[in-house]
Task: inverse folding
């Protein structure tokens, strides 16, 4: 059982100016789930691209042996032919095609170019059953949730007779429930003898399902450990190169008067105006306070934040916003920013950054008047600001002229934060500020949050990771199905209490609905 | 986290090689333009650089360049405008009717026409920005509408000629307030009278303006370099800086000398020059321009950064409409009449100029100088091939391939970097 299915030896991959990988070694045993972890930018994805042939043979140094033979892949097609399939972090599905069409995209069930739809339906139903997805193969991918889309990706991989499945952060955008189901599925595949490689940041997941872990740091393989030796501390230590005693920097809160208050906030869905997404929310944040919003996916957290911030989500919005005790008009982004409010999005690539422009222009875009006089930008002032914030938030880049799209996730997040810090708000709403970024960068983000709170700003953090909220917040609101179902002070809060509030809220919601109907 | 080195302030000075590499990409277009000019200079036995021909090239391409300035904003914002040719033709006809049929004062008529262009751009911009209808469709409709209106207002006739004051826009040259400078005396014939086209008489005002522009250019280049250095930011190597600026200054002076040895600066070149400078300033230094790039790069992120993306899009189309109107005026003044076929197909030349100049069809990328050079590349090819006597059919084929080649080169370069 313990034979080696894949061995990568001394892989070195150089990009112009950067060594992305340096003598990386990886051995994967047949039938294992092998986890690869490391900070963002450590080189995990690059390694997987070397393995799957995205970077063709010859563009890197080193050897790959698969099933005892040396491989020289020239593209994804070559690696798929021998049963290596990679599922990328960003799903590669076509939203307006059906599940069946997506599964067989590029591998159409056709004779002489004519698609046999019966075969497509039959085979995709089979595959969907294997991954435990109960959906009609004719359903359009856009109509199913992210969790199910991930399953479609896996079904697609299975259709290619996969022997080695590579998953790049498969649970990054899934809710806890969907993640659990996915991990169970991987265990099931393992029982059937499939080998998987999983890239993940989530240590609890790795602990749960991995047989072996290889840690990569700064483009080098640090160590490979067996299940028996896996502890969270050890993983973290080898990931960051030193032990982090405390994953959350400590802070003594100095809480002042109320800075931000929302009263009777209600929002309806933009496409289905009869559906109420946010139901009469009241909340407040005080000076120097870090307040969390906990809740499951779809609870309405982002919708709440965006509806407050310039009405960028929803229709038929009602309620009042108070900043510094005065009624504030936040009906457009411009007015909200002028009133001292900032919102850093959960999806930095889509809503946060101009990926084709450099750091300097991204940092100043929300506050151009701050570096210009009567509409004319002062180049030197702008450069100074960009460098100042680059230093302040510790953005790792060659200079402020590096293109935002080429930065790692953690550094992109720091650019988004810099942008909003330069707008000099009194009140910041941070939506999933540490999603998809590594332990080290998370710590840096928490440090920034603490510093802002110490400066007397109010901070509202939306997060799906409960330990994070418990670690950094002074107070936590629990949101469920558009309603606030609990408010906990940090000293009395626990994951269990938050979950209980959610469950109780759901039960009450069901009661209400029954009463209404 | 492990502390990283200090940020790029006063970091390693860019090496000569690096500066060459960066600038080669930036000035690749200029080099391409120079190469094409030299090529046609040789192939046309020196006709291309004759002062009269250079002046002609400017006149022939002025309206394309004027519209390319607006089109650059439109394309950087992630849109397209197919209606500009038809709008230019229509406005030219309106101008003709106002001035010729109704005898309106040319200045007033010109002003009204540009206002009409703003309204036309505003209407199209309204549908694009606020109703969220794709610009391709709105302006395709606009193209049909204004082509039709052009035929309608002219009802089949050609209207002209324009009043002399209006003709000056395209046919006039700036007055020589300083007075001509005789550089080389003309050869005299047997009777003692000067033979035409011999000797060199310079239009001094043009030369003085040229020298002033070059001095201003050098001053600002030096100032910005000093600024950077005094703030501790790295600048390109001094030798490179000197060579680059001397070459640019040399080219400018050479062209000015050519104009000066004909009739001086054409009026339309002055208008164009001012507009180009204005648009470079808008895109490089003004918040308005920066916001256009931000919007073209990621419209959602721009909106969430407080940019009024809809209003911005609207204004861009208003500006495009005004420039299309101005181009229509220049075009009709050059022909000295408004015809039912005026402006047909111009939009494609304009769009081609912007793409040859390095703009991205996806938005967010493009430079004003690039669009201008792109327009000149296409214009000089037109002129050169015309002088060489290449048939119009092959001219089209070659131009198409140059357009494709330029974009392929751009994409190739980007992938390599």
Result:
């Amino acid at each position: 059982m313990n034979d080696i299915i894949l061995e990568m030896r001394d892989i070195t991959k150089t990009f112009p100016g950067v060594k992305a990988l340096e003598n990386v070694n990886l051995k994967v045993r047949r039938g294992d789930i092998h986890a690869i972890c490391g900070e963002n930018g450590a080189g995990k994805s690059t390694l997987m691209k070397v393995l799957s042939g995205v970077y063709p043979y010859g563009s890197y140094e080193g050897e790959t042996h698969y099933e005892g033979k040396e491989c020289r892949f020239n593209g994804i097609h070559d690696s798929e032919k021998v049963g290596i399939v990679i599922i990328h972090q960003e799903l590669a599905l076509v939203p307006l095609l059906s599940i069946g069409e997506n599964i067989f995209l590029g591998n159409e069930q056709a004779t002489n170019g004519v698609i046999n739809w019966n075969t497509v339906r039959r085979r995709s139903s089979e595959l969907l059953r294997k991954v435990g997805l109960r959906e009609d193969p004719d359903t359009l991918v856009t109509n199913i949730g992210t969790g199910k889309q991930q399953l479609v990706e896996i079904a697609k991989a299975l259709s290619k007779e996969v022997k080695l499945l590579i998953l790049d952060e498969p649970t990054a955008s899934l809710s806890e429930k969907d993640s659990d189901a996915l991990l169970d599925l991987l265990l099931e595949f393992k029982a059937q003898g499939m080998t998987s490689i999983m890239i993940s940041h989530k240590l609890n997941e790795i602990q749960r399902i991995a047989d072996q872990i290889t840690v990569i740091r700064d483009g080098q393989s640090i160590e490979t450990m067996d299940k028996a030796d896996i502890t969270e501390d050890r993983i973290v230590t080898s990931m960051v190169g030193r032990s982090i005693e405390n994953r959350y920097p400590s802070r003594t809160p100095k809480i002042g008067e109320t800075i931000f208050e929302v009263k009777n906030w209600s929002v309806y869905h933009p496409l289905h105006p009869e559906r109420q997404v946010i139901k009469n929310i009241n909340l407040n944040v005080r000076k120097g306070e870090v307040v969390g919003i906990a809740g499951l996916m779809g609870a309405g957290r982002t919708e709440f934040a965006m509806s407050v911030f310039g009405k960028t989500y929803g229709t038929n919005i009602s309620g009042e916003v108070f900043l510094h005790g005065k009624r504030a008009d936040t009906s457009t982004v411009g007015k909200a920013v002028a009133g001292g409010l900032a919102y850093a999005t959960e999806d930095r690539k889509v809503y946060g950054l101009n990926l084709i422009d450099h750091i300097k222009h991204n940092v100043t875009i929300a506050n151009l008047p701050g570096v210009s006089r009567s509409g004319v930008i002062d180049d030197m002032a702008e450069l100074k600001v960009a460098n100042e914030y680059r230093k302040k938030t510790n953005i790792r880049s060659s200079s402020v002229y590096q293109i935002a799209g080429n930065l790692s996730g953690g550094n992109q997040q720091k650019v988004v934060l810099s942008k909003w810090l330069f707008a000099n708000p009194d009140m910041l709403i941070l939506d999933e500020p540490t999603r998809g970024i590594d332990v080290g960068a998370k710590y840096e983000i928490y440090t920034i949050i603490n510093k802002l709170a110490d400066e007397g700003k109010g901070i509202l953090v939306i997060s799906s990771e409960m330990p994070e909220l418990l670690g950094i917040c002074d107070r936590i609101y629990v949101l469920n199905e558009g309603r606030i179902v609990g408010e906990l002070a940090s000293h009395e809060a626990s994951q269990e209490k938050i979950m209980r509030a959610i469950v109780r809220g759901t039960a009450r919601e069901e009661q209400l609905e029954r009463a209404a109907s | 986290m492990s502390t990283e080195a200090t940020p790029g302030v006063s970091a390693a000075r860019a090496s000569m090689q690096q500066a060459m590499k960066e600038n080669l990409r930036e000035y690749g277009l200029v080099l391409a333009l120079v190469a094409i000019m030299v090529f046609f200079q040789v192939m046309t036995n020196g006709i291309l650089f004759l002062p009269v021909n250079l002046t002609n090239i400017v006149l022939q391409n002025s309206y394309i360049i004027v519209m390319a300035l607006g089109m650059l904003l439109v394309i950087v914002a992630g849109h397209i405008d197919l209606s500009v040719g038809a709008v230019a033709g229509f406005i030219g006809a309106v101008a003709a009717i106002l001035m010729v049929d109704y005898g309106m004062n040319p200045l007033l008529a010109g002003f009204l026409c540009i206002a009409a262009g703003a309204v036309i751009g505003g209407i199209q911009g309204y549908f694009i920005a606020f109703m969220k209808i794709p610009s391709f469709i709105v302006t395709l409709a606009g193209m049909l509408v204004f082509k039709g209106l052009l035929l309608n207002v002219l009802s089949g006739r050609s209207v002209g000629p324009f009043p002399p004051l209006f003709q000056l826009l395209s046919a006039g040259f700036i007055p020589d307030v300083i007075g001509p400078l005789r550089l080389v005396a003309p050869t005299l014939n047997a009777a003692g009278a000067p033979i035409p086209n011999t000797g060199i008489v310079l239009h001094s005002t043009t030369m003085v303006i040229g020298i002033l522009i070059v001095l201003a250019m050098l001053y600002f280049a030096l100032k910005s370099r000093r600024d950077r250095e005094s703030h501790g930011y790295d600048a390109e190597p001094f030798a490179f800086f000197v060579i680059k600026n001397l070459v640019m200054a040399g080219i400018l002076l050479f062209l000015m000398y050519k104009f000066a040895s004909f009739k001086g600066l054409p009026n339309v070149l002055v208008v164009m020059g001012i507009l180009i400078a204005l648009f470079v300033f808008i895109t490089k230094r003004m918040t308005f321009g920066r916001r256009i790039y931000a919007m073209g790069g990621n419209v959602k992120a721009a909106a969430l950064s407080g940019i009024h993306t809809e209003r911005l899009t609207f204004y861009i189309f208003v500006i495009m409409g005004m420039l299309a109107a101005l181009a229509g005026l220049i075009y009709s003044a050059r022909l000295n009449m408004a015809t039912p076929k005026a402006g047909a197909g111009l939009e494609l030349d304009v769009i081609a100029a912007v793409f040859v100049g390095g703009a991205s069809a996806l938005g967010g990328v493009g430079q004003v100088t690039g669009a201008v050079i792109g327009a000149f590349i296409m214009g000089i090819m037109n002129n050169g091939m015309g002088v060489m006597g290449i048939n119009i059919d092959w001219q089209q084929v070659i131009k198409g391939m140059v357009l494709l080649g330029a974009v392929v080169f751009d994409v190739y370069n980007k992938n390599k970097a």
Notes: Chain A has a mean pLDDT of 87. DSSP finds 17 helices and 24 strands in chain A.
